[in-house]
Amino acid sequence: MKRSRIRESLQDLDDIDQLDIEKIISDAFDQAVQLTERLELSNLLKEHGVFDLDSMSKYVFQQLNSSSKMFDYSTQMMIAMNLTLKKK
């Protein structure tokens, strides 16, 4: 019973953290919108369809993904670990 309460408490913390992070992102985006409006950039962003949070998020993800120099070594590590385990 005690473990169950601990598990529920940890889940509550995870939920709070996610809600806090979402609030921080939303607030930051709202501030960015205000800034773009003061700089008169909002019309340009609207013309390119990247003025709302969802479309801006997708656009930034695509840009970072296409220009990223990073390589995901996790797949190669898993293959190497599997080969090592098979040899034993």
Brief summary of the model shown:
The chain has 88 residues and is mainly alpha-helical. The chain has helices at residues 2-38, 42-47, 53-67, 74-87. The chain is built from four helices and no strands.
Relative strand content: under 5%
What percent of the residues sit in helical stretches (DSSP H or I)?
A: over 70%
Mean pLDDT: 75
In DSSP terms, counting alpha (H) and pi (I) runs of 4 or more, how many helices?
4
Order of helices and strands: HHHH
- Report the biggest beta sheet as strand number plus sense, adding barrel if it closes: none
Rounded to an integer, what's the Rg over CA atoms?
Answer: 22 Å
| Cα end-to-end separation | 41 Å
The count of strands amounts to 0
Q: Which parts are unreliable, with pLDDT below 50 for 5 consecutive residues or more?
A: none
Shape: flat
Please, how many domains? 1
Q: Given the helix and strand composition, which structural class is it? A: mainly alpha
